[in-house]
Amino acid sequence: MKRELDEYLCKTFPKMMADRNKPMTETAMCWGFSCGDGWFPILNSLMQNIQHHLDWKNRTEEVVPQVVLEQVKEKFGTLRFYYRGGDDYIAGLVSMAESMSAITCETCSKPGTRTGGGWIKTACKEHGGIDYEESEEDYLKQGYEE
After folding, report:
1. Which of 3, 28, 35, 9 has its CA nearest to residue 106?
2. Which residues contact 28 (CB under 8 A, 6 or more apart)?
3. What digits encode the pLDDT tens for the residues 66-115?
4. Which one, out of 77, 81, 105, 125, has a CA that is 20 to 30 A from the CA of 96?
């Protein structure tokens, strides 16, 4: 992920980045967000929803432990969001975001497909995804733009 997007997430969600400066043996966030720029909207929305939920639930006393990121990366063509803290609601948000990444181009955020044999990635047609041979109508049903 571009440095400015990485820095934006760190600055916007400092409570989740509390362990950012720990030694590498304790957290992998010292490497930053290890995924493409196309998943930035998914991450930004996820982290915003997580922090909103935590702040709302904990407005008078801490009932849900603060989410602290351990590692955020791409693996097998989808987003992986490893963290400590949270509750079942947050686990659901994370699961939804990881699922969304499987249909979102990691490069540009357009609808994408998981492709590849050895190295799996999620990409739109322009960035190496499936090149549909169907009619234009079928192509647009897949969620791609012209």
Report:
1. 35
2. 34, 70, 71, 73, 82
3. 999 999 999 999 999 999 999 999 999 999 999 999 999 999 999 999 98
4. 125
Q: Which of 132, 88, 86, 101 is nearest to 34 (CA)?
A: 101
Classify residue 33 as exposed, middle or buried by CB count within 10 Å of its CB (0-12, 13-18, 19+): buried
Least confident of 24-28, 45-49, 83-87, 96-100: 24-28
Distances (CA, A) of 59 to 54, 68, 90, 141: 8, 18, 17, 44
Helix (H, G, I), strand (E, B) or coil at 71: strand
Q: What is the 3-state secondary structure (H, E, C) of 37-64?
A: HHHHHHHHHHHHHHHHHHHHHCCCCCCC
Calculate helix-pair angle for 3-12, 40-57, nearest 10 degrees.
Answer: 10
Angle between helices 40-57 and 88-101 (to 10 degrees): 170
- Residue 47 burial class via C-beta count within 10 angstroms: exposed 0-12, middle 13-18, buried 19 and up: buried
Q: Where are the domains of the chain?
A: 3-102, 108-146
